[in-house]
Amino acid sequence: MMTDIEHITIAEARRDLDGRTYSAMELAEAHLSRIEEKKGNNAYLEVFDDVRQQAKEADKLVQSGRGGILAGIPISVKDNILIRSRRASAGSKMLEGYRAPYDATVVLKIREAGGIFLGRTNMDEFAMGSSTENSAFGVVKNPHDEARVPGGSSGGSAASIALHTALGSLGSDTGGSIRQPASLCGVVGLKPTYGSVSRYGLIAMGSSFDQIGPLAKTVEDAEILFNVIKGNDPYDSTSIPVKLYPRISEMRKRIGVPRALLGEGIDEDVLKNFEKTLAALRQSGYDVIDIELPYAEYALPAYYVIIPAEVSTNLARFDGVRYGLHVEGKNIAEEYAESRSKGFGPEVRRRILLGTHILSAGYYDAYYTKAQAVRQLISHDYEEAFKAVDLIATPTSPTPAFKIGEKTDPISMYRSDIFTVTANLTGMPALSIPSGFVEREKKELPVGFHLTAPMLRESWLFAAGKDVQASVK
Questions:
Q1: Contact at 8 Å (CB) between 186 and 434?
Q2: Any idea of the CA torsion for 88, 157, 140, 129, to the nearest 10 degrees?
Q3: 75 falls in which pLDDT band (50, 70, 90)?
Q4: Per-residue confidence at 431, pLDDT binned at 50, 70, 90?
Q5: pLDDT band for position 209 (50/70/90)?
Q6: Residue 413 banded pLDDT, cuts 50, 70, 90
Q7: What is the pLDDT of residues 164-206, one digit of tens each?
Q8: Euclidean distance between CA atoms 112 and 165, whole angstroms
Q9: CA–CA separation, 151 vs 183, rounded Å?
């Protein structure tokens, strides 16, 4: 018999499916019903028409004993990760009719593990945004308050978990796009080490920042998903070879807190929740140490110089000629201009223009080169800090979910990423764990606790994340 899916995790479903408590078909049907019930939240852009067929095949695998760790587990996928023969629009009119010619490596790995793909989730256009308000197909509503945003750019993926319309989800993280919506929706989100998960089949935004990662209800579930999708991939030149993986040493249970960053701009109750979580970790045997990250205050401006430069380069291919939206014009120049102006939304156009300016003669050295130098200084700060501590803690977001339409000024929106962009600048792994709630207008809104670890130390994040989860219960 199928039980209430609101209280099922991937780990529990695995045991239940193997124990024949219910079938993959029953689990899939329950999630399809839930998706229909919650379709007003706009988390899904498309629900696949072969979900029941996938579930039927999964049941055969489970019954034969040949099923993988995800056999029969319903998974949602962000709209910028390719699934063969399925549409992949990256939340943009530019790619509205595009169908993927191949599977992303992460999709292949989930297929091999027996996962069931439910559908593709809504997102900020080409992953540019912190609210999913930039989607060409409408904003996603926060499951805890429909007047508020779910965060972004993986807002649909985070909402699909919080709405209990999927047991796990894949998102992409360029400056916090998994972790920030995870925090605002009250779920777990992991940004893995850069290169530990293949980016083959991900529609690129910023190639030196982008990383695919999991969203889930629990840290244990995020760990299960990460272990499925991680690993070297010959199709991704930035993928880390296995021989370069270090031998993982035991965590010393030392957490560093960069107090200088916890100043102006953080809501008082968010900071209070953060301190309460730190106190709980102390009770669990962790040492909490104040640390200095001298250049971390420049992370946000450095990020918003480098990322538009990479955006303008990556999105140059969408010209309406080879593929993408095509608008007829009097000549090739007019067709090119019209296709791009109608295909891209305001935030994408803003970043393309800014990036083109940054990379132009006379400005490259003044902005781009300096920002890359700051990036190296920030990485050095973190490397030095990790000599004294194992993990670095901050809130995930300075605020809980804000109202739809509230942040019309791009700068105020960009500040939502203040604690998350450093993990993408440095390439280090980071995890957001739900740490409680704060109240806004008589609504309980979730907040997240953010941990960053040294390169390839995801196991430390999972261990500490489980302790955070235990302390919040």
A1: yes
A2: -80
A3: very high
A4: very high
A5: very high
A6: confident
A7: 999 999 999 999 999 999 999 999 999 999 999 999 999 999 9
A8: 22
A9: 8
| 59-80 average pLDDT score | 96
Task: Using alpha carbons, list the distances in angstroms from residue 174 to 154, 188, 303.
Answer: 10, 17, 10
Architecture of domain 5-241: Alpha-Beta Complex (3.90)
Q: Which residue type sits at 231? A: G
Distance CA 399, CA 407 (A): 12
CA distance 287 to 455: 21
Per-residue model confidence as pLDDT tens digits over 285-312: 999 999 999 999 999 999 999 999 999 9
Report whether pLDDT(384) > 70: yes
| Structure-token match 């629990």, residue found | 218
Q: What is the pLDDT of residue 245?
A: 83
pLDDT of residue 2: 67
Contact 231, 192 (CB under 8 A): no
CB atoms within 10 A of CB 234: 10
Distance CA 469, CA 92 (A): 36
Supply the residues annotated as catalytic: 78, 153, 177
| Burial bucket for residue 317 (CB in 10 Å: 0-12, 13-18, 19+) | exposed
- How confident is residue 412, by pLDDT bands cut at 50, 70 and 90? confident
User: What's the pLDDT band for 322 if we cut at 50, 70, 90?
Assistant: confident
Quote the tokens at residue 11: 């780990």
d(CA 150, CA 157): 10
Domain residue ranges of the chain, discontinuous segments joined by +: 5-241
